[in-house]
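Many introductory courses stop at the sequence. We go one step further.
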Amino acid sequence: MTYTIIIKDGDKMGIGVVSGSIAVGSRVPWIKYGVGAVATQAHTNVNLGPMILSLLEKYNAEEALKLGISQDPQRELRQVGVMDWQGRASVYTGSLAFLERGEIVKKNKLCMGNLLKSMDVVNALDAGSDISGSVEERILNALEEAHQAGGDARGDRSAVLIVVGKKEPYDRLVDIRVDYSHNPIKKLRGIYEML
């Protein structure tokens, strides 16, 4: 259904998401400079995004995720990834989240997905981000590689790239959404290259 990568590098953090659903950027990614990022997917509970992001003001990624997910009576349907501003990441994947599903959690990087063609998609996210370059370039490359590995089992239809890196007056360095396309990652890349 959806695959996501979150990367922290220096004073920047970014999140990239692709889905077979339309308008994925309206409900899955949540990110704030100096705090961290949250992706809530599978059977998405949009309330978890802002709730866990708020918890990250006081707790690390693992603690914020545990506290947030404990308040969701249907948590077995969810896949939620969290990264705090120190680059610590944690993922919860419920037993009823769509197959194929999986995650890779490293310092400063989180890759996860569900309803994928195969676990190759998550592995491609991880490997694709290991290029030199900006957070934006690393995320775009990761999404392109994951798409080539099969992407969403239904086909990729929407995508989002958000990068934060400053506090005032607005924390977004990049905020691009493709709400519907037969090749949303190509459109995302094209828009990014026009910035």
